[in-house]
Write a structure and sequence with these properties.
Elements: E1 2-4, H1 7-19, E2 24-29, H2 35-47, E3 50-55, H3 75-84, E4 89-91, H4 95-98, H5 116-120, H6 124-139, E5 143-147, H7 151-163, E6 169-173, H8 193-198, H9 200-214, H10 220-234, E7 238-246, E8 260-267, E9 272-279
Parallel strand pairs: 1-4, 2-3, 2-5, 3-4, 5-6
Antiparallel strand pairs: 7-8, 8-9
Helix pairs in contact: 6-7, 9-10
């Protein structure tokens, strides 16, 4: 495995590989890797000649009161995991490499926002699409891999690639879960013992909503109310949001007759958990 920290070296290497006719699978991460990240690398390994993974905690996507400084980091541990997964190149830039100067060009998103995580994290997806645009130019991927745990991010990335004509195929990888259903996340380490025990109910609540749709319920308000009632009865965390929207457009629906997403975010003492389930009626 080759480790690259320089922006120029990464781009030069990627351009060389593409000139040789190699397909590149790219898995962008913010590190502190878990099975969800590993699933991205494994799928990329199956479908491409070369696999590039990146680890970069992007400051642009953190708000003023968010956990950039506390975000878990362990480069030595992550390097071992990436090497074990037979990744060809690990891109490890620091902030001075990615943002040597304040950005003179800004990017914005006007669709698929204003709901879910974006409602309480203004500017978050500006930071996401900015760093991904830079990473896509640097790694020259044929395919880029994203986990559906953050389904809004996947929808926004799909919009970025479509609207700006990036020659990249976006691959959506199913959420990797703990045996009790909790979606794997780097932030799970911040849960207390009691919070970890009850966190399984997030996925069980989403499964309840899915079953209601399968059973023929088409009224989104009734489904949201039942799921919310279940959560309030089983968790102590604060429900940040619980929404049912079309997917991937993330628009409100009055009648469930298309693919939808049921998404939830719960704030615990030191961790904010998100999860979702996508259902086609």
């Amino acid at each position: 495995m080759k480790i690259i920290r320089s922006v120029k070296e990464m781009q030069d290497q990627a351009i060389l590989l593409r000139s040789q006719g190699k397909t590149i699978g790219f898995a962008p991460t913010m590190g502190y890797l878990h099975d969800g990240h590993i699933a991205l690398m494994r799928q990329a390994r199956k479908e491409n000649d070369i696999v590039i993974a990146s680890i970069f905690v992007n400051p642009l996507q953190f708000g003023e009161n968010e956990d950039f400084d506390k975000y878990p980091r362990d480069e030595a541990r992550d390097r071992k995991i990436v090497e074990k997964e037979q990744v060809d190149i690990l891109f490890l830039p620091d902030i001075s490499e990615m943002y040597p100067n304040s950005m003179g060009v800004t990017m914005d998103v006007v669709s698929r926002i204003g709901v879910l995580c974006d409602r309480n994290r203004p500017g978050h997806f500006k930071g996401v699409i900015t760093v991904l645009t830079k990473l896509f130019h640097l790694t020259q991927p044929s395919r880029a891999y994203f986990g559906l745990k953050d389904a809004q991010q996947v929808a926004v990335v799909d919009l970025l690639v479509t609207d700006l004509n990036f020659p990249i195929e976006i691959k959506m990888v199913p959420t990797v879960r703990e045996p009790d259903g909790l979606a794997k996340s780097s932030r799970n380490v911040y849960l207390t013992e009691q919070e970890r025990l009850e966190s399984k109910h997030l996925y069980q609540a989403l499964q309840l909503g899915k079953q209601k749709i399968i059973d023929g319920q088409k009224n989104p308000v009734m489904i949201v109310n039942e799921v919310k009632t279940y959560l309030k009865q089983n968790i102590t965390g604060k429900i940040d949001y619980l929404e049912l929207l079309s997917y991937p457009t993330l628009s409100p629906v009055n009648l469930i007759d298309e693919q939808v997403i049921i998404a939830v975010a719960v704030q615990y003492s030191q961790a904010r958990l998100i999860d979702n389930i996508i259902v086609t009626p």
